[in-house]
């Protein structure tokens, strides 16, 4: 055999076990079945019983000190949050919640305090309060020894100020315990929650704690991941121990980790349907979308930076409107507009080349500022834009092309006199138009009354998370959220325990090919969450008609 043949026949050596993989493989198994914990936490005369998932979560908190709980929507995460301080003997617990849930959380605490041993002084803090400048020292002022993050996906972005403040607090106070709860822990990858798992479980985290090793795992597991041979080989030991493909192996290791509790069943027994509603856009709307996609220019004349902004403006146009800036005294700041437009043109030029490390507007901006950037036009344009970009944007006003979508939604409601229906809106302009037509609307900062309207319109961002809305059984989406996590949360408002209707329907308008692409993306994300976290995603289990 020649030397060349010997080299070709020689099997490549597998990379040695990385420190993170060695640690994860050595982790013990957590308890899956635990005794009912109701008697430990209930007061005399309590008329409630803890669900099995609640008992398991509280047991893990008591035994391991922290908790990472990807528990599906509607499974009773609130009671876990309320009882956790007593389980660990916390003196200064803080409960982080979305701003829309602050009032509801306080009411729920008061309600369940009559039945369970709930800590007397749980401080409820909104994520928005933690984000603003005045909230920079809020954790240092309270000095919590337990932080419970309900809907912890609000901390998924490590660069967000609220996330930085939480991480910084734990770095200074390692004795503080952390509980992470969310029905949608991740939306597309490990980076969404790896830092939260590390804070909650410390050395028991079932994923690498080293950034570069985490990237190897992400290539094998994330939505859109494309691992090379080396990355596959590095991840293979987990597959060999737990079996299946990459995601199956990771899920088995993740779910069995001490301090991890997840759900695999639905939170509601009634049927769930995703149904398409008819709504054809008029000629003027089609023309506006066509112009947008041909010229990469918004109806107001602004240059579009990237595909994400393109998709955002297209969704507005599909609703029949767009936003334009309302300049003070009608005098546009042309220096700002020109610099912005030219920078966006340069960014699009670079993005078309799909170069590694320069495939997003942020990375292009970083490259333009680096000493190694030899793209003269990009550098000059960036310097001009850098002078202008700090200026405050003017307010916007709504310009309607056609109210066809609102008209269709009102006709839809008119045909459903008996079924209470929520019209879900991503845009403030839609809420304002529905309100002008006499439909009750619930947007940001608004509480839903005890006796709500039969039909109403709600903001997805303000009311689509954490709310108990099972008094309604019909939903109409004016826009289809491309994010599977957002859609899962929204569906879970009505398809949850306590729903008395035989079925819950989620209707959506499919006015354009891009809507089907949004559906495809949402399902892809839902499949990723299901395969790695175990949650039975509603968008996957629903019947599509």
Descriptive report:
It is a single chain. β2, α6 (102-112) and β3 (123-126) form a beta-alpha-beta unit. This protein is globular. α11 (211-221) packs across α12. It folds into 3 domains: 19-255, 3-Layer(aba) Sandwich (Rossmann fold), CATH 3.40.50.10810; 271-281 and 402-544, Rossmann fold (3-Layer(aba) Sandwich), CATH 3.40.50; 300-398, no CATH class. The strands form 3 sheets. The chain has a 7-stranded parallel beta sheet with strand order 10-11-9-12-13-6-14. The protein has a 5-stranded parallel beta sheet with strand order 1-5-4-2-3. The protein is built from 24 helices and 14 strands. The chain has 545 residues and is α/β, with parallel strands linked by helices.
């Amino acid at each position: 055999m020649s030397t060349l043949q010997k080299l070709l026949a020689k099997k490549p050596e597998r990379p040695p076990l990385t420190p993170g993989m060695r640690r994860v493989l050595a982790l013990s198994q957590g308890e899956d079945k635990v005794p009912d914990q109701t008697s430990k936490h209930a007061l005399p005369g309590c008329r409630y019983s803890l669900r099995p998932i609640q008992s398991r979560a509280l047991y893990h908190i008591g035994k391991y000190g922290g908790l990472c709980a990807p528990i599906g929507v509607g499974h009773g995460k609130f009671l876990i949050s309320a009882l956790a301080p007593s389980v660990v003997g916390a003196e200064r617990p803080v409960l982080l919640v979305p701003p829309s849930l602050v009032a509801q959380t306080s009411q729920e605490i008061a309600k369940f305090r009559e039945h369970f041993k709930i800590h007397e002084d749980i401080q409820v803090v909104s994520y928005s309060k933690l984000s603003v400048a005045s909230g920079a020292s809020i954790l240092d002022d309270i000095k919590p020894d337990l932080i419970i993050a309900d809907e912890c996906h609000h901390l998924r972005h490590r660069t967000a100020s609220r996330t930085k403040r939480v991480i910084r607090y734990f770095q200074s106070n390692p004795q503080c315990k952390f509980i992470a709860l969310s029905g949608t822990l991740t939306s597309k990858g490990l980076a969404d929650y790896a830092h939260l798992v590390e804070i909650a479980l410390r050395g028991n985290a079932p994923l690498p704690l080293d950034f570069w090793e985490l990237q190897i795992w992400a290539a094998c597991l994330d939505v859109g991941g494309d691992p090379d041979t080396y990355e596959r080989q590095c991840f293979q030991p987990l597959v060999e121990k737990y079996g299946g493909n990459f995601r199956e192996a990771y899920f088995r290791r993740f779910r069995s980790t001490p301090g991890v509790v997840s759900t695999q069943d639905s939170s509601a027994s009634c049927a769930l349907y995703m149904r398409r509603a008819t709504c054809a856009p008029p000629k003027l709307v089609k023309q506006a979308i066509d112009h947008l996609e041909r010229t990469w220019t918004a109806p107001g004349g602004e240059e579009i930076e990237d595909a994400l902004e393109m998709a955002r403006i297209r969704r507005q146009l599909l609703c029949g409107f767009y936003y334009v800036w309302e300049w003070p005294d009608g005098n546009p700041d042309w220096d700002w507009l020109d610099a912005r437009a030219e920078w966006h043109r340069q960014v699009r030029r670079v993005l078309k080349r799909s170069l590694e490390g320069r495939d997003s507007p942020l990375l292009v901006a970083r490259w333009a500022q680096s000493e190694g950037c030899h793209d003269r036009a990009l550098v000059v344009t960036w310097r001009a834009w850098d002078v202008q970009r700090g200026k405050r944007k003017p307010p916007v006003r709504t310009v309607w092309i056609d109210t066809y979508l609102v008209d269709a939604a009102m006709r839809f409601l008119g045909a459903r006199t008996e079924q209470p229906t929520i019209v879900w809106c991503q845009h403030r302009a839609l809420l304002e138009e529905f309100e002008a037509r006499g439909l009750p609307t619930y947007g940001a900062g608004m509480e839903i009354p005890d006796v709500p309207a039969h039909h109403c319109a709600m903001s997805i961002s303000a009311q689509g998370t954490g709310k108990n809305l099972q008094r309604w059984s019909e939903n109409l989406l004016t826009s289809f959220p491309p994010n599977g996590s957002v859609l899962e949360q929204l569906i879970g408002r009505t398809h949850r325990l306590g729903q008395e209707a035989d079925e819950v329907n989620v209707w959506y308008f499919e006015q354009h090919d891009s809507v089907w692409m949004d559906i495809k993306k949402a399902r892809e994300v839902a499949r990723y969450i299901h395969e790695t976290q175990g949650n039975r995603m509603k968008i996957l289990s629903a019947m599509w008609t």
